[in-house]
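Protocol step 4 of 6: record predicted structures for both targets in the notebook before any analysis. Target 1:
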Amino acid sequence: MIGWSDFENFTLDKKIQVLYEHGSFIMAIRYYNYKINLYLLGRHYIEVFINHKMASIEKILPLDTTHTRMKFYSDQIKLPHELL
């Protein structure tokens, strides 16, 4: 399994490849100018920010459980209690 510290240091292209090959897609939300895909990689939830107007992935970040976006996720799926 790929360690979190290794994943964080990958290039954007390598992160995309790893998520495609080893991650599990959970769900997608719309948030301002982004479509955000939520993935599970090992025990880590990861957000992929897609600028749908430009059809490009702009950033890949760990799920910020303190952000107001959590409401969009928790309204649709049941996340583990340790994330809430």
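Target 2:
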Amino acid sequence: MSHAIHRVEHFEIVGPYTLALRFDDGTNQRIDFQLVLEGEVFAPLRDLKLFNAVELDPTFGTIQWPNGADFDPETLHNWPKYRDDLVAMARQWAETTEPAHRTAG
């Protein structure tokens, strides 16, 4: 089964932990990432300075951060479909992370 591959063409920071994304098919998503910023890769993004260092990766058509965090562009394109599962996963990561190693939010 195949699915269309959509690329992020443009993004804008529109609030704390929130990005507005435009895709190559003309669709848009406004995503608040705050509830998924847990775990080894994504928890550091709770530092707004690091979160706001997001950039477009033109090679893979997605957004990325300096610490190596990124999201599959298909996940971003269809965020409402994946949001609840990602939030649940982030909660599990938060529960398994030792408090001494958690980043203050």
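Step 5 preliminary note on target 2. The domain at 8-101 is CATH 3.30.2020.10 (NE0471 N-terminal domain-like). The beta strands are 8-15, 18-23, 28-32, 55-57, 62-64.
Proceed to step 6 after PI sign-off.
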